Amino acid sequence: MLGLIQRVSRASVTVEEKEVGRIDQGILLLLGIEKNDSQAAADKLLDKLLGYRIFADEQGKMNCNVQQIGGGILVVSQFTLAADTRKGTRPGFSTAAPPALAEELYDYFVSRLRERHSPVATGIFAANMQVSLINDGPVTFMLQAD
Q1: Which of 7, 33, 113, 114 stands 20 to 30 A from 103 (CA)?
Q2: Residues 6+ away with beta carbon under 8 Å from 70
Q3: Motif span (Gly-cisPro motif, important for rejection of L-amino acids) (predicted)?
Q4: In 3-92, which residue ranges form alpha helices assigned H by DSSP?
């Protein structure tokens, strides 16, 4: 399971010209699910996401996590993160989870996240989404559930 996280001042996701999710300061998580992923992988990524220290403390150092600053998390399913880009000039998706498994794990991840953190906003799984954000820093990291 892959999570591209961006520290944001604000972020939103729109589907068919309707805003479906929005946060102010916090993390935009683009979530990629691979075919060998499981609920255990989702739990590991969730622990890493909530504990990852990417927000400034009083001295300006990245020592605070999203929970410590009371930030929001916007989760957007991102099928293309699971692409195999090692060869050629066209991505391959043989490593991506099939849609039914990906949606099950996405729903599981969001449910567990909402049990442990607030506020949480989401996009719509498998929809054509437009994501807007102000990346604070810019600060962007790739998290993996290894």
Answers
A1: 7
A2: none
A3: 137-138
A4: 39-51, 66-69
Instruction: For residue 30, give both structure tokens.
Output: 């683009």
Of the residues 14, 25, 79, 140, which is catalytic? 79
Domain ranges of the chain: 2-137
For residue 82, give the 3-state DSSP assignment: helix
> 80, 85, 130, 144: which one is catalytic?
80
Nearest-Å Rg of the Cα atoms of the chain is 15
Residue 45 sits at φ, ψ, to 5 deg, of -65, -40
Q: Tokens for 66?
A: 């999203």
Tell me if residue 80 is catalytic: yes
32 forms beta bridges with: 2
Q: Give the span between the Cα atoms of 79 and 34, in whole angstroms.
A: 9
Give me the catalytic one of 78, 109, 122, 125: 78
pLDDT, one tens digit per residue, over 33-62 is 999 999 999 999 999 999 999 999 999 999
Q: In angstroms, rounded to a whole number, what is the distance separating the alpha carbons of residues 105 and 33? A: 8
- The helix or strand, by DSSP H or E, that contains position 96, with its residue range, turns out to be none
